[in-house]
User: Fold these one by one.
Assistant:
Number 1:
Amino acid sequence: MSSHPLEARSEWLPTVAAANCYASAKESVDWHSDTLTYLGPMPTIGSISLGAGRPFRFQPYKFAPLSAGNNTNTTIYAIHLPHNSLLIMHPPAQEHWRHQVPPSPVHPHPIAGQARINITFRHYRDEQRLDTIPRCRCGLPCQLRSVVRRAHNFGRHFYCCHAAHANQGRQCDFFAWWKPPTRGKETSKTLENTKK
Ligand SMILES: O=C(O)CCC(=O)C(=O)O
Ligand SMILES: [Fe+2]
């Protein structure tokens, strides 16, 4: 059941499982929010941990609204992810928070030892497809993100150029606010070039 107006209206049915293998305690994932391009705004992500236990850290963005028990936006929270555990990142986990798996001591597993496998289950939304996502001036599909570094428009979703990773660091200045699909029509139109 969706509870946020921007969440997918359809039932959460994972269409993608993405696996990460951390061979040892040295392997880590730095601070980030998960890319929203195919998930759409306000996704729910299920995350299974297998093998060595590792800490998982999360921290609200500076301008995220404070909630009860969240005293300052610099607080870093850590939870232990043991073997065979399920972590569910509910909305607005990606828009208001960032997360990481730091390089830190592991709780070894009797068979896997230091190794940990993480599988995230993600629901790619019907309307967030390669043929509906806008293309930037480089001619490549855009990335969907939300505003995280400014108080103004905090949390608002936008498309931007994602060419740099495939284009030797070069990218264009394409910008377009994400617009919810009109009811009954699974399209993602955008409001191009309005100010951020
Ligand atoms: O390994 C984990 O528990 C999290 C990995 C992660 O953040 C990701 O794949 O986006
Ligand atoms: Fe992540």
Number 2:
Amino acid sequence: MIQFKNVTLKYGTHAALKGVNFQLPKGSFTLLEGHSGAGKSSILRLLATFEQPSSGDILVGKSSIARLNRRERSHYRRSVGYTGFDVELLENRNCFDNVALPLRVVGLSESDIQSRVKAALARVGLSHTDRMLPSELSGGQQLRLQIARAVVNRPALVLADEPTAQLDDESAARVVGLLEEFNRAGVTIIVATHEAHRFNRVTHRLKLGEGAVLPAPADLSHNGGRESGAQSFSKDFLNKAYGA
Ligand SMILES: Nc1ncnc2c1ncn2[C@@H]1O[C@H](COP(=O)(O)OP(=O)(O)OP(=O)(O)O)[C@@H](O)[C@H]1O
């Protein structure tokens, strides 16, 4: 289970997240939706431990990941796969070495690395690219390579920031299919996206607005459009956010 307890994240004086609360069960497939700047990436970055909350707590399983020391953080990160704009492929290393990177960091034997990387590349349909440089791949292939690197450690949690952005329909469907396949195998998936329509196997949706989780659509009728979180939203704002 993943739980955010009253989480605030400030970049300098700007609060990107303002008292966010939610729970997601193990094995769920969650979409983070909301306008640009709503705080979707910030949630993923906190779960990846690229950022620490300014206040509040984050539980993953039974452990708090809000304030880990270096050793604890590197241990936790082995159970998490992340793909997003802010994690780049190494341009001077071939595709095999890019995917092998997380395994080399944890000191896996070379024979295990060979078999795991080959399996990950095959899974994303890129077996033939192992000796190529990332720059020789298309945008969609580069994204699938990032996904192979994110899952090669067999993580329990995969975080994907805009994994279908700028892809054509066919490439996007392939990326979505991969994430859904991992979810079927029991991996918890959280995706930040502006393209919710591309995803089918969704168990939870979190709508964000101005750094807070908006009440679920069902709440709109129960409390007349008033807030259930830490922040007030006008009925117009909520209706627009949910496309009502
Ligand atoms: N490194 C940073 N330094 C300062 N402000 C930041 C930083 N990263 C994000 N922000 C601000 O925090 C807020 C939330 O950003 P975040 O990237 O989480 O939103 P988002 O919903 O993912 O947006 P998008 O859909 O455009 O990716 C925005 O106002 C953004 O400008």
